[in-house]
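OP here, attaching both records as promised.
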Amino acid sequence: MITVVSVMDGLEGEQKRRTLGLVPHVVIANNIQKSQTKKQSPLVDWQTLREQLLLHPKVKYITPLLESEALIQSSSGALGFVLIQGVMPEFEQHNIINRNMIAGSFDSLSHQSFSVVIGRALARQLNVSIGEKIRLTLPNQTVFTPMGRIPVQRTFTVSGVFNVGSAVDETMVYIHNRDGAKLHRQKGDGVEKLRLYLDDAFSSDLVVTALNIDLNQYTVTTWKDTQGVLFSAVRMEKNLMWLMLSLIIAVAAFNIVSALVMVVIEKQGEISILQTLGLDRSGVVKIFITQGLINGFWGVTIGTAIGSIITLNLNSLFMSLGISLLGAGQSLPVELSIHNVLNIVFSALAMSFLATLYPAYQASLTQPAEVLRNE
């Protein structure tokens, strides 16, 4: 149980780190849309709004954003559908993408015009590398040309490759906000949204209420609107895993019940003799509860030690056996929590105690006269 729960906690923590490290905890956008394209209108005075929002103690940092969907194409003809994010690298120093660059740099977006940073999975899909050209096309926006109306498109140079290890590696590309504004035929820096990252993502609802944003002017969304279903499913899966493992321990506790019942049957004579020597019913109950708790204590102690050792060396064990559950080169995330270990230990001891009550009670009902009559 310690091993399985530690792996579940590790997987949940890794998912939180990767998902909530990429997904903004709170997004604030202009409530006014352009009538023709249904696209978000730029935030005119976003710098002032950003400084105002940073005053909240739970807001760690805020980054400006331009976002749109696009088709991406390499010189080899490979196509893909991606989400463009126009960012300002000077505000993205804490971005998980910036910390997981494997080629080039995220700051190259500021130094090189019309450059793009893409994920390793997408780079493999398009068969491109640093310095090669790709074409971004906006299917929802068109311009008039001598050839007629065609989608807005622009050639970009790959200046960086990241690897987060999630679905974002093949679905998201990053460009500079100024290049995004030019691509969308906008004036200024093209900032459409502000992304708020909090010290605790799960307090987003409380933070939104405390920010006191004018909902008539701005649209406020949180990560729960986009990722809430996913985390609810993970939480439910974890709760079901706890229930299943608790039932397994409950079955193990029945072994204590059956063992003590057999002892009671075998030791009828000895119990009767002790009773004739003056041992009362409470004394008989204490004897069998103590015996059951000793067995439970040793089982919990040995199980905790073995479970903790296996948990701390799980990846080494899999490596020695040649097992790779997450693919080559990826280790299984394991998070051994003292809180969970203590919960498991006390739960197992409590089940051991409850398992001793019935056999101890049955032993206390022994009638010395009837038992010793046949001895």
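Record two, same layout:
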Amino acid sequence: MTAGAAVALDALMSSIRVDLDLAESEMQRMLATGTEPVRSLLEHVSRFRGKQLRPALVLVAGKMFGELGRDHHKVAAIVESIHVATLVHDDILDESAMRRGVETVNRKVGCETAVLLGDYLFATAFKEAALLKSRFPACDLSGVVAVVCTGEIQQVHNRNNMDLSEEIYFEIIERKTAALYAGALRNGAHLSGASQEQAAALARFGTKFGTAFQIVDDILDLTGDEARVGKSLGTDLAKAKMTLPLVRLRDLASPADRTRLEDAIASHDAGRIRPLLVEYGALESARTTADDLVRDAQRELDDLPDVPERTLLQQASEYVLSRDR
């Protein structure tokens, strides 16, 4: 991560540190249980959590339009619980062994228990949302999870599809990844009384921000250092997923190199693909698209209130482009 992006992200997090801590307390309350092995597994997956971007977005969006209250903290915790549930289920789908340097639940205790733990996290989040004074978070976030699931189903359905179009690729990642970013911002703004138009603008920012995030994630899966990234890499290739760098390479490559690409994907051989990605500029092309999305996301904030939180969101969005983990 570049120094500027790191500073901007730290500034964003520092501006809501007290509220993030309160959201963390709400999450601990939500998930408190003496039942074993559930309690131990929840402690284990708590180590998967990174920068807590999604709950932070709930809180920053709320601060843009008013004071934060306990419902903001609860919704931030609900969003984080949903996110962790998706990580647990993603690791099952990808047969991953490592997440943030920690053994995945499916590797630790098997897929059956991992499925149930993810379901437990979803169910707890929905119960908490249903108890809020406002019905909006329960309705909206349940819809977000449905969208995430449709994106995951689309992705599984399109494994080994060498002819996957960019249109479908973007549809998949907007659903499976970006939808929760958009929902976090939309709910934070709604709880503070933002207008429908203002909440929608923040949601569009979240969609573009989250889409750029996933593109960079797809690049790292092909080129990253597993020790630095802290999770199993090469899982997209192992599952024959056509991510944006591979789609761009397919469209740029000569017929002979396209055949080599197809053979390398079929044999899960990243070593044969990386030189082609560089030769044809496919990685740079994908990075440029991520950059364009971040610039478009920043423009979505132009008509929102000129408050420090808007500036923090604009600056922190640069974090996506400089990620190396």
